[in-house]
Amino acid sequence: MEPIPTLSNFELMVMLAIIRIGDDSYGVSISNEIEETTGTEVLLGSVYDTLARLEQKGLISSAIGEATPERGGRAKRHFRATSKGIRVVRDTRQSLVKLWKGLPQLKGEEV
Amino acid sequence: MRIQPAPAIATWFLKLFCSSAEDESLIGDLLEQYRQGRGRFWYWRQVTAIVLLRLGRNVRRLSHAVAAMRIRNAFTLLLVIAAFWAVLLTDIWMIFLIGIVGGVISGALIFLLGNGRNERGTSSAQIGTDHPVLNHPGISIHHIPAEGAAGLLFVFGTLFTFGVGVPAVREIFVLTAPLAALAAGILLYWHKHHSVKIEALDLHKH
β-strand A75-81 against A60-67: which pairing, if any? Predict the structure, then answer.
């Protein structure tokens, strides 16, 4: 049986952003989504490196889209989560929920 | 609405390292975000990160043998560039000394870079065995004039291709140029403080 790939923190963020955005997932929308959600600036290079890794693992697929003038005539590359990708995200969530359950209160955390 | 042009040097730098068809969408994304109102500082930061990530990824993909070869190539090219800096910036008689050394080194460089170009089709197991280019017999004292001339041609060829666009050559050039400037500085410093010793080798005076 093929082993289930594990996701790093940033890989999980990118996967979730792709799933949240849906059909219009491409580099800009993914990094904007992560920036708006986390409040920290995202490096586009890191996003693309992560997307390449996720595609290599078979968790997402990509297709070349339309070119627009504001992009200097360059085409967009759209991403979507594969069924395997969605399954891995679901498994990761279950694992994280299990890990969080029964965790003693963290130092400095307000009740 | 007038479209704000992206910083030209940063874009040139980006294209230098991201020239594949897959990178087109990345460059397009960067331009789109910049034109949405991000600043020049943001653009430069993004470009620098992309280039560093790309270099890191390329290094990780190389085998140890190929990485060692790349370092050797870069160091050799560094010496050639440093020699040219020294020739440009110091006395004319220095050309004789550096011409011989630079000629031999740049002659060797032809074969080293030949290795670099063939490395994609060469497994690390092949290096040091029967690969025709990798096992070139090397530089012989009898071939200095021919290889020196070929080496000089190579240097001018490198400068030419740097402008025209062979990514592999440009990558090595960009990586070694700052180091070459440093080496040229060291050479100039050495020349300033050891000029008597160099004059003893001046062929014009003997």
Answer: antiparallel
Q: Given CB atoms, is B46 within the 8 Å cutoff of chain A?
A: yes
- Confirm if A44 and B33 have CB atoms less than 8 A apart: yes
Using DSSP's 3-state secondary structure scheme, residue A43 falls into coil
Bridge-partner residues for A8, per DSSP? none
**CA B206 – CA B199 distance, rounded (Å):** 10
From B20's Cα to the closest Cα of chain A, the distance in A is 13
Instruction: Tell me which residue in A44, A72, A77 faces B50 most closely, judged by beta carbons.
Output: A44
Q: CA gyration radius for chain B?
A: 21
Q: Is the pTM of this model over 0.90?
A: no
CB atoms within 10 A of CB B107: 24
CA angle B93, B198, B75 (to 5 degrees): 85
* ipTM summary value: 0.84
Residue B136: predicted pLDDT: 44
Of B35, B46, B52, the CB nearest to A70: B35
